[in-house]
Structures are given as structure tokens and as C-alpha cells.
Write a structure and sequence with these properties.
Elements: H1 2-6, H2 10-19, E1 24-25, H3 26-30, H4 37-49, E2 53-58, E3 61-66, H5 68-97
Antiparallel strand pairs: 1-3, 2-3
Domain HTH arsR-type: 1-86
Pfam family, one: HTH_20
Keywords: DNA-binding, Transcription, Transcription regulation
Length: 101
Amino acid sequence: MEVLDVLGDPVRRRIVEALSSGSLTSGAIAARFDISRPAISQHLGALLAAGVVTVRPEGTRRVYALNPDALDAAADWLEQQRVRWNRGLDALEQALDTGQI
């Protein structure tokens, strides 16, 4: 899942956290980090390509916002994995309790 791939980077996760409070310009995002603006632009590009963020021009600035649909898709996938693991662990617990293992 591409969304989870891009969220594997801690800088990108921090960008998503920053955007969770609302839209921000690229400059406002960059001001929160101790890395170069070009590096932030690359991270924003990766988030944009994965559909995690959207961007709109506002004069000479670019304003970024979260795309909740992409995050919902990642949350759904994670929930499916949680359910699968819980089923397996419940079956293991039952087998241990009944002496089948």
C-alpha cells in the first residue's frame, strides 16, 4: 500500500501530523523542520504522489491539506490486519486452553 510506504518516513509522518490541524503553506511546513526547503518539497511531493495530501495554488504560494480518503484507506487496511491477527491469536489461545497444543 503506497500510503503506508510514504508514511514509513518520520519526516512525512510529522508533516501529516502538522496538517492534521488544518491546511498549511509549504513555507509554514518547512519552518517546522531543521532540514532544507528542497528536502521538504521532496517529502511533500512523495505525499502528494501517494494521495496523502492535496495541494492548491494560492497566489504564489502552495497550500497543502490532508486527503482523508487516503488515510481512511490505510486505516481500513490496518484494521483488516488487526482483525486477522486477533482471530489467529484467539484460536491459539483456545487451543492452548483446551490442551489441543
